[in-house]
Here is the input.
Amino acid sequence: MINLCARRQFSTCRDHLIPFIPHQIGKSDAIERFRKYDENRFFVRSAKEKSLEKTFIPVFFTDSMEVSSEYNGEYSQTQYYPIVTNKGIIMQPYMHWYPVSGTLSGSVYSSLLTYGGFSLNQRLVEEALSTQDFIKKLRPFDDRYIEDEVTVDPFYKREEIAKEEVIRTIQTLETRKINNLIRSRYYSTGSHVTSLNVKISNLKINSCLLPAYILDQGSMPPRIMPAINFDSKIFGPAPVSIAKSVTAAAVASGAFSLCLPQMDTPAKAAMICGPSLLTGLWLQAKPRLQKYINQRQMDKLSQKNDMGIETEDDYWRRRMTEKFS
Here is the structure.
């Protein structure tokens, strides 16, 4: 175990060790999986091993908990009324909204996951890791698995913020359930919840480090492959080969120009070069813009996180993971 306690006893540090899961997939096997995943996709660049990072991702997750919700909302019913027009009598549809309220109980949620850092795209991380069955595989922290080539994404997010995100996730899931319930009960084509009061019992937030491989794609957002199970999938946008895409656009434009023999040579050249140039510019600009938007979102979350109070548990999580970042 690693002693990160400068002025505290080792027993105090040991109480704050973060459970983790070692990588179940080797780095060479991981890069091969990326390449096989992309080999049948003509416009995708092949992955390079030097761009692959073996890392541990910080996450918060919940125990099993029961949820009940009191709600107010509306549902719609479509009724048809005859109206007289110059073409005769037609049935005109009108949508009527009716109030509804009730209680939804018996919902059970477990292992809801939220990303504990700010360096990666939160939605992508949660999409990749929420599909994994990891709780039973967690083990006490062991620094022998932190090799020179392995990095750790620091645990910067505070538990208070993580709990707020979990509650918002539960509210979203409950709203979805309530809308489905209302529509099925009243045979409605539409519904919406106007107010929602969620009561959560036994809400407990845990933390851990989960293994993954991050493929750096330069100007594009990175791709993630969890390394918890041997059958892990790859998440994130694939890197498009600009050279192949521009060539394909030029070939298509050239073939189309042959169908227009009345066009002179400068016009045909413009038809071939124009789409190719626009394709190349768009393929360069789109991922950069997407990466910039993602980074701005994470920066806003980080600023909100910094305004919260750092508890002792938050402090130890950050200290332990910063050592390997």
